[in-house]
Amino acid sequence: MKDYQILLYYCYTAIADPEAFREEHHRLCLALNLRGRIIVAAEGLNGTVSGLREDCEKYMETVKADPRFAKIDFKVDAADKHAFAKLHVRHKPEIVHSNLHHIDPNKHTGIHLEPQEFKKMKDQDDVVVLDVRSDYEHSVGRFKNSVTLPIENFRDFPEKMDELKEKYKDKKILTYCTGGIKCEKASAFYSSKVSRTCTNCTAALLNTVLKPTAKILKANATCLITG
After folding, report:
1. Does residue 223 have an active-site annotation?
2. Catalytic-labelled residue, pool 11, 29, 56, 177
3. Is 144 in contact with 129 (CB distance < 8 Å)?
4. What domains are defined for the chain?
5. What b/e sequence results for 180-192 when a residue is b if at least 16 CB atoms lie within 10 Å of its CB, and e otherwise?
6. Are 186 and 109 in contact (CB under 8 A)?
7. Which among 17, 26, 49, 107 could disulfide-bond with 89, CB atoms 3.0 to 4.6 Å apart, if both were Cys?
C-alpha cells in the first residue's frame, strides 16, 4: 500500500463568509501537511491536494463532518509521494471560472446520473451527449459520438449556447466533464436557456471510466470511451 494519497474534489454549497472559511481551511491543511490547490467561493469548494494517507483520511473526515459538505465526493488515488510542491488556498468569485456568476448550482442544476444510468441513456436516439470541456481536454479523450465545442476555456461555453439550444432543442442533453464540476454549471445554464429542468443530466468522466464496466479504446491517439 502506498503511503500517500491524491484527493480530487468539489462541492457546490453556500459559504456565507468565504474569506473567513478560506483562512480556517488553510490552517486545517497546514496542520495536516497537505499540499495542492484549493479554491473557495461563496458557491462552494474545489480542490486537488496530496498528503500522507492518514492525513488525507483525517482531512476527508473533517470536511465531511461539516453539514455543508456532507455530500462531497472525494476521488482518491494512491501515490508514492506528494504530487504538489506547495499549498495554495485562494478565495475567488467562482470555484471554476465560467463567467456565469448569476447561475447557482446550489439552487438549480441537471439531474445527476450514476455511471450505469449514463451508459444506458447515452445511445438513445433522443439523447445528445455534450462534452463541456476545452479543445485540449476533449482531444485527449472523450465519449464516442459525443458533441464537442471549439472552446479554449470553460468560460467560453456560454457563447456557444445559442447554437446549441436551437440545434438540439428537441433532444435530451447529457453533459459530462472530467470531474463533474463544469457539468453542474453547464447543465444549470443550459436548462435556464431552454426552460427545461429534467432533461439535462450530469456525469463525471472519472466516475464513469473508473467503473469496471467501462472500456477505453484508442484510435488515432484519441481515447474513445465506449463503456
Report:
1. no
2. 177
3. no
4. 4-91 (3.30.70.100), 111-225 (3.40.250.10)
5. bbbbbbbbbbbbb
6. no
7. 26
- Of the candidates 178, 46, 190, 47, the one whose C-alpha atom is nearest the C-alpha of residue 109 is 190
How far is it, in rounded angstroms, from Cα 73 to Cα 46? 11
The Cα 14–Cα 207 span in angstroms is: 24
Exposure of 1 in the CB half-sphere (CA atoms within 13 A)? 5
Distance of CA 84 to the CA centre of its chain: 20
The cell 447543465 sits on which residue? 187
pLDDT tens per residue, range 139-183: 888 888 888 989 888 888 888 877 777 788 888 888 888 888 888
| Neighbour tally for 172: CB within 10 Å | 17
* Helices 53-65, 18-31: inter-axial angle, 10-degree rounding: 150
Report the pLDDT averaged over residues 35-63.
Answer: 98
Grid cell of 147 as nine digits: 458533441
What is the average pLDDT across 47-59?
A: 99
- For residue 147, the 8-state DSSP code is B
Coil vs helix vs strand at 100: coil
pTM above 0.90?
Answer: no
